[in-house]
Amino acid sequence: MESTNKPEVWLRGPLPDVPALLQPVAHALMQAREEVTSLLQGFPDDLLWKQPLPVASVGFHLQHLSGVLDRLFTYAWSMALSDRQLADLKQEGKPSPNDPLSTEQLVTRFSVQVETALAQLRTTDDQTLTAVRLVGRAQIPSTVIGLLVHAAEHTMRHVGQLIVTVKLVTASAHD
């Protein structure tokens, strides 16, 4: 991953139009996008689905990063998942034989999903943050802020796993 002279996103100041309590969520998502974009610049498409150890592939992490943001932010809006979202969930971790996606396409998809999430954060009324939201088919109760914070921490957890996986995959490809 290439180093930049810019401080991490959270040290660059508040983001305009994002409620104060949601600033950490926005900062984490923007940091994740920057790290993923930098990490995977020039990553070979033929390594997307490689698993040198029993760990999730780079392709899985990229699909999951986009998908989990989409799903958790959908629940935060108090909406059920669409048929498309459910189909995408089933496809996570599997290359599409009919329409193989490139690393660049998967990174772009994640970047667009982060932008969509940021737009939702900007329109989230901070008075609704403690409102109950139901998650999944089991309708497990959470809150708007619980879903949004979990989306940020889950995203960063997978970015960390992605960094390690990229190192493993590229090292094994050079052996």
Stated plainly, the CATH topology is called Four Helix Bundle (Hemerythrin (Met), subunit A)
CATH superfamily: dinb family like domain
Oligomer state of the chains in this structure: single chain
Q: Kindly, what is the distance between the CA atoms of the first and last residues, rounded to a whole number of angstroms? A: 20 Å
Poorly predicted segments: none
* Main beta-sheet annotation: 2 strands, antiparallel
Can you list the strand order of the major beta sheet?
Answer: 1-2
Q: Return the CATH class.
A: Mainly Alpha
Q: Roughly how much helix do the residues carry, as a percent range? A: 40-55%
Taken as a percent bin, the fraction of beta residues is: under 5%
Q: Tally the helices.
A: 5
**Helix and strand pattern:** HHHHEEH
The backbone outline, from C-alpha atoms, is: globular
Pfam family, one: DinB_2
Protein name: Damage-inducible protein DinB
Explained architecture:
By secondary structure, the chain is mostly helical. It has one domain: Four Helix Bundle (Hemerythrin (Met), subunit A) (Up-down Bundle), CATH 1.20.120. The protein has 5 helices and 2 strands. The protein has helices at residues 23-39, 58-76, 83-91, 103-123, 144-173; strands spanning 132-135, 140-143. It has a two-stranded antiparallel sheet.
